[in-house]
Amino acid sequence: MLGTATIPSIPIVRRLLPGLTLIAVLMLSVCAHPLQAGSSPPRSDLPKGQKHEMRHEIDRLEETWRDAILKQDPIAMGNLLAEDYMAITASGTLQTKDQALANLRAGRVHFTTLDAFDRKVRFYGKTALVTSRVEVKGTNADGDLSGGYRYTRVYVRDAQGNWKIVSFEASKIRVSGEHK
Fold first, then answer.
1. Would you say residue 2 lies in a domain?
2. Is residue 70 part of a domain?
3. What is the pLDDT of residues 88-112, one digit of tens each?
4. Residue 73 burial by CB count (10 A; 0-12/13-18/19+): exposed, middle or buried?
5. Per-chain mean pLDDT for the chain
6. pLDDT tens digit string along 139-174?
7. What separation, in Å, do the N-terminal and C-terminal C-alpha atoms of the chain show?
8. In CATH, what number is assigned to the domain containing residue 89?
9. What contacts 71, CB < 8 A, 6 or more positions away?
10. Is residue 137 part of a domain?
11. Which helix (H) or strand (E) holds 20?
12. 30-36: long-range contacts at Cβ-Cβ below 8 A with a sequence spacing of 24 or more?
C-alpha cells in the first residue's frame, strides 16, 4: 500500500499556523508592489551605502519600540504601528493596534528589562523583515514573562515614506525538557 496521508493534530496546526500566516503576510506585502516600467529596483539591489542607512533607520525604530515598551508610552508606540497592525503574542493570541495600545495604557504588561541581540534586518522592496532574540524581565496578568524570546517584526514603507510596523510575532524559547 502506498503511504497514507494523515491530518495533523490540532497542537501541531496551532504551532505551524502563526509561521504560515507570517509567510503569507510577507508574500502579500512583497507581491503587492510589483515592479513596473521605470520603478525602483528592489531594496536589495540598492547601493551598499543606501542599504546601510536604511538598516540604521530600522535599528533606530527598533530602539524606539523598545523604549516605548519599557516606558509604557502609547504615543510613541502608536506612531510606530500601522493602522492595520496585527501581532501574534507569545501566548498565541492576536492583537490589533488598538488592543496593543490599550494594553500599554493600562499597564497590563510591564517590562523592566528588554535586551535585544542577534538582530537581522532584511529588505524586500518596501518591506523590512527584522528577526531578533530578546531577554526580558517582566510580568502580565498571568504572571512572570521573564526569559528568552525570538521575534519577527515586519515594517512596510507607507505612502509618506515612513516605516510602519505591520506585523509582530514572538515565541518563547523553551529550555530543553521544559513543558507548558
1. no
2. yes
3. 999 899 999 999 999 999 999 999 9
4. middle
5. 81
6. 988 889 999 999 999 999 999 999 999 999 999 998
7. 38
8. 3.10.450.50
9. none
10. yes
11. helix 10-31
12. 30/124, 30/125, 30/127, 33/125, 33/126
| Owning domain of residue 88 | 11-29+43-172
Asked if 146 and 170 touch (Cβ cutoff 8 Å), the reply is no
Q: How confident is the model at residue 1 (pLDDT cuts 50, 70, 90)?
A: very low
Number of domains in the chain: 1
Q: What pLDDT does 180 receive?
A: 54
Buried b (16+ CB within 10 A) or exposed e, 93-128: eebebebbbebbeeeebebeebebeebebebbbbbb
CA gap 120, 25 in Å, rounded: 19
**Domain-embedded: residue 74:** yes
| Beta carbons of 92 and 99 less than 8 angstroms apart | no
Cell of 144: 512572570
Q: pLDDT band for 178, please (50, 70, 90 cuts).
A: low
Q: Which residue's entry shows cell 516606558?
A: 71
Amino acid sitting at position 175:
V
Q: Which of 112, 116, 90 is nearest to 180 (CA)?
A: 90
Distance (Å, rounded) from C-alpha 158 to C-alpha 134? 27
Angstrom distances, CA of residue 165 to CA of 10, 73, 96, 106, 176: 30, 16, 12, 21, 32
